[in-house]
Amino acid sequence: TVFFKFNFRNSKTPAASASTPGLDNHIPIRRALKENTVKHVLVVMVSLVVYGSLEAALVRARIGNIGDFLTIISIFLVTACFANFASSYEITDLSENWMRILSQAASFFFLLVISLLLLTMIIGIRIAYSRLYDISLIFSVLLYLGIVLYDYWDFLRCFARRDRQGSFESKKQ
User: Which one-letter DSSP state was computed for residue 130?
Assistant: First the structure.
């Protein structure tokens, strides 16, 4: 069986010219990975820019029952994570620019919302439960890294599928 076989030098495999049923995804993998990496860097940059305003707003708000606030943020976070995991690159034809851009944009906004909600939780915990700040920061960073790794894995599955389909097509001919 073929697991993950990527052609980094030339994305044009023999199957690229054959009519492969389903999705093509024949763009250079390096270009696709650069686009995906730029998306993740932009999410981190926007989150860092917004952090100060988010912190100031939470400090000014003087939330009376922080537990209820954190519960609401957690519900939003679960919803955003579900939406992020449900929208997969697997059904996207990455060779079509508009589909790839739309898919990357949706992923960008889901990741941004997740990042901002995690920051909101961390700030809220720091304000109300300062002794739990370090552990909540560690868990939040690990959760976010896991989500980023999942996004890369989901993205790379398209190329693994392409290579498996190409291998399958070349064996049929």
Answer: G
